Amino acid sequence: MTGPILFTPLDLRGVRFKNRIVVSPMCQYQAVEGAIQDWHMAHHGRFALGGVGACVIEATGVTRDGRITPGCTGLYDDAHIPGMRAIAALYRRFGAACGVQIGHAGRKASTARPWDGAGPLEPGGPEPAWETIAPSALPHRPDWPAPRAMEAADFERVREGFADATRRALAAGLDFVEIHGAHGYLLHTFFSPLSNRREDAYGGDLEGRMRFVLEITEIVRSVWPADKPVFYRASAVDGTEGGITLDDTIALARALKAKGVDVIDCSSGGILTGVALAGAGSKPAPGHQVPLAGGVRRGADVATMAVGLIVDPHQAEAILEAGEADLIALGRELMADPNWPFHAAQALGVEDADGVLPEPYAFYLRRRGRVSLDPRDPPWPQRT
Known about the structure:
Layout: E1 10-12, E2 15-17, E3 21-23, H1 38-50, E4 54-61, E5 73-74, H2 81-93, E6 97-103, E7 133-134, E8 148-149, H3 152-171, E9 176-181, H4 186-191, H5 206-223, E10 230-235, H6 246-258, E11 263-267, H7 290-300, E12 303-307, H8 313-321, E13 327-330, H9 332-336, H10 340-347, H11 359-368
Parallel strand pairs: 3-4, 3-13, 4-5, 4-6, 6-9, 7-8, 9-10, 10-11, 11-12, 12-13
Antiparallel strand pairs: 1-2
Helix pairs in contact: 1-2, 3-5, 5-6, 6-7
């Protein structure tokens, strides 16, 4: 009898994912000048001990002004390599692969941390605002500052930023990189007709709007070793009239695959709205983005990662069984339960579910399994 797919290894190029559970990139906003701090080590230690198959370290700026907030991690300086190396080594010690999401925030850069309002930074504030760039001088929201439309020198700086960040990720010993092309950040704004009004080779029709995305992908793939995978995170639909459709993203996914991308991480929204598949005033349903991963997987014949309110082990297994995705990414569910892989193994009937955890935990949990945990049973030893 074969076990659940969720706990079946997946090989991508020369990297083995011991199971299909991936820590989704979750911004912590705790970095200092882009550098990893103790918080990040504690944050990732919870997941590494919990039995995940892989992790994608949070959205990481390829340039200093490409960070979302002043608290975002970066790979724009060699000083950032040791912190990333420490996180990668932590996961590797417990048998998990580790990657990093590299990107440029574009017109959504220079913002305050979410708990400080997530609005544009003030020019004279304690953390001063910086200039933002985008394909066109269109603000993310009407009351936000307009970004500067990118010129030739800006294109070159971003290209160099992605190349250098990829080299630093390799120096840090990471197993894969994920290019951030979602959620209203720079590459997404090039791809979406809602934010790209350029009249040169980098705008206009679908081919033009894909051009810079594919250039960046070529750069990353040329730097990254052939035996290590590259992921691409896409907002598969904008969820707004006139925006990206699933057919557009399937076309992009085909082109990305031809450039050497191995997995499309399928999210949604971020150009003018938040979550794209939730109607006005409504809440997204569990697994609300899974159809996007399935559509891209079938339409482009490429591996996908599903993400978005996947909370139940049986739900995750059903997604894999139905061929909707190859990997399952969890974010806040892992925050709430960093031992979710262990509990999933129990729920899905994995033989020796305790073995999903590191041996110092598994040893004692196996021993605990030999005694009754039913509070109705009499205490031991019984006195006569």
